[in-house]
Amino acid sequence: MPAYGVIGAQWGDEGKGKVVDYLAERADMVVRFSGGNNAGHTVINAKGEFKLHLVPSGVFWPQSMSLIGPGVVLDPGLLLHEIEELEAQGVDTSRLFISDRAHVVMPYHVQLDQLEERARGSAAIGTTGRGIGPTYMDKVARVGIRVSDLLEEGYLAKRLDVVAKQKNALLTKVYGAEPIDTGKLYAQMLEYGIRLRRYVVSTETIIGEALAKDARVVLEGAQGALLDVDHGTYPYVTSSSSTIGGACTGLGIAPWQIKSIVGVYKAYSTRVGAGPMTTELNDEVAHTIRERAWEYGTTTGRPRRVGWFDGVAARYSAMINGYTSAVLTRLDVLDGLPSIKVCVAYKLDGKRVNQFPSNPDAMERCKPILEEMPGWTRPTAGATKIKQLPAEALNYVRKLESLIGAPIDLISTGPRREESIAVRPIIRPRRPAKSD
Ligand code: GDP
Ligand code: IMO
Ligand code: MG
User: Fold this and answer.
1) How many angstroms does the Cα of residue 271 sit away from the middle of ligand 2?
2) What is the pLDDT of residues 49-62, one digit of tens each?
3) Which domain range does residue 141 map to?
4) How many angstroms separate the Cα of 226 from the Cα of each of 50, 72, 140, 251, 271?
């Protein structure tokens, strides 16, 4: 004890990067447990502006170790590039380590992700095209390649032999694409193995020992609860467990070791890719928010869909994760709007419902029941104290808190680390060491 889980509570891009960078000041370790470089986490601090895809967002703090756990799928070329870029910007990555058990995103996974999306036509999921789904498919089908395999020449050759036969049949016979050049792929993966060797460890051992010594371990979620493969808006989801349970399976820690479960909510809704979004707006308000807040994907640059805060989805997210705290981000984006709407329930086939439906067609038929609240004219942007918030903004925060059903312990009022209001500490400051 103790681990602190920080989970995206909506459809991703809630500001997890900003929040983890902020919280990591008091952490000994920040760990990614799921997803891959479909994630794009933005951090803005004194060192600059960073878009992280695989490297944990605690990397900027010298006392904090950064780990990529077994549940993550890892594109080796991209990780090496990300490390190089960080180093070039003066960020020390010497305390970054990756799990020997993490699965590798291979070039054929990226290719298959794109081919599968094209084949889906109008039913496309709108994936990030980074090979994430196919890599998790292979992991579960037991034909995946793991980080440790890149370090074992003989074993890698044997594994690739089996996999290449299967993938070549798929590539050539189903998709009419070129087969894999196995020799070239083998050489490239061995080279990645050589370059990654110094980072490869048993993360279970490091985290287990740290927790046994009472170190503070922040579990950095990727994506969001509503993109979770079991609990999200299936099939418009990612292929991993982005809810808190994914931290236990993705790292090898026990539920009782997690002291706090923090759900990060944006003050409104956004979504990238296809799938139901009951509160979606296609009007001037959506346009204003998208341009003002630059709601474009951190990884793919796609415009994000924008809508009002969805209280039904928010409560569902809190239920399946058991948040002990909520964080509210991007409150400042709503500054100056004359009024703000909040979805408090859905209307489905003429009936009021409070439950989040499992069927995407039913979700598409849901209409939001909206409550209108007054906006505020005095800006919240950059506020660092709760008393700086206009009464209407505070009223809005309280409304969301009651819809979520967990206390909002941190409010973010801008993209920079310091643009934050600590309502209650999520990670307490360390007790000073006792002296004789
Ligand atoms: P993540 O994937 O959850 O880490 O979120 P992204 O980085 O993809 O997207 C969140 C965006 O919101 C980034 O551009 C952040 O810099 C920005 N951001 C985070 N918190 C705030 C905030 O409180 N106010 C504003 N204006 N921007 C924020
Ligand atoms: P962060 O960690 C927002 C979405 C994609 C698509 C669906 C499946 O930055 O919040 P995938 O490539 O995972 O198979 O795509 O999931 N998606 C995200 N949306 N933020 C993310 O990560 C996302 N990662 C995946 O847009 O709809
Ligand atoms: Mg993002």
Assistant:
1) 9
2) 999 999 999 999 99
3) 105-198
4) 25, 18, 21, 21, 10
